[in-house]
Design brief:
Length: 250
């Protein structure tokens, strides 16, 4: 399981559990306590579940695999699990499309989409698509509600490091002392920094984003509502891969 945000692997667990397959889970060292606590409670409520759910440090002898990691670890997953039925997930991120008419409330919700869980989730917004001449000041003001993240030394280290890189590189940026906005075509941005791009043709932009394989979800009018990026429904399968259909095929 991945471990970038709390219980990020819960949907996979729930899918396999509902389908009735037995499962062996290798947790991430970054998120091992919550899922183990949850399953411990299930054991207490129904001890026969112990026959269906177990944990292991190495996954061997399984009939199928669901694995999530970086693009680099995905290559290892392909090598080791490629001969078995599998779902292998790699790096994904999310973007927002703004048109400049967003209300203060919508910007507050967008701030949550950006900064919840330190921005580490694949559904966190790491790039903004804005019309030319967009005024970033209201958004930067709204993002100040997450200024407390600077109390965490790892977040502050990222902020200081990437701010220094931009300054030394003589790159244009905007900031509010806790987050940095800078123009960049990459949808992936480091912790404490959000990229943005300007657009002139929204229809062309929508087509470009729909074809982009690295994008997990799009937030904005006509897309995932503001504030809902980190609250996917049960049918919002990661990477658009229907986990239940995969389990049914086994």
């Amino acid at each position: 399981m991945a471990g970038n945000i709390p219980l990020v692997g819960f949907h996979d667990f729930l899918s396999v559990f509902i389908y009735g397959h037995s499962m062996t889970i290798k947790t991430s060292s970054k998120d091992e306590f919550l899922i183990k606590h949850l399953i411990k409670k299930l054991y207490e409520w129904e001890n026969t579940i112990q026959n269906l759910v177990s944990f292991a440090e190495q996954l061997k002898g399984c009939d199928a695999y669901i694995a999530t990691g970086s693009n680099n670890s995905g290559r290892y997953f392909d090598y080791y699990f490629g001969k078995y039925p599998n779902i292998i997930r790699r790096n994904r991120t999310s973007v927002a499309v703004l048109d400049g008419t967003e209300t203060e409330k919508e910007l507050e919700l967008l701030a949550d989409d950006i900064q919840l869980y330190f921005g580490l989730g694949c559904r966190n917004i790491t790039q903004l698509h804005v019309p030319e001449g967009y005024d970033f000041i209201p958004l930067l003001d709204t993002l100040k509600k997450y200024a407390y993240l600077m109390d965490y030394h790892k977040y502050k280290h990222n902020y200081d490091y990437h701010l220094a890189l931009l300054i030394m590189g003589n790159k244009y940026y905007m900031n509010n002392d806790s987050i940095i906005l800078t123009e960049n075509i990459s949808p992936f941005s480091p912790v404490s920094q959000v990229h943005y791009r300007s657009y002139t043709d929204k229809k062309q932009l929508e087509k470009e984003l729909s074809d982009h394989q690295d994008i997990q979800c799009i937030v904005g009018k006509g897309h995932v509502p503001f504030g809902q990026a980190q609250f996917p429904g049960l049918m919002d399968y990661a990477d658009g891969v229907d986990t239940m259909a995969f389990l049914k095929s086994l």
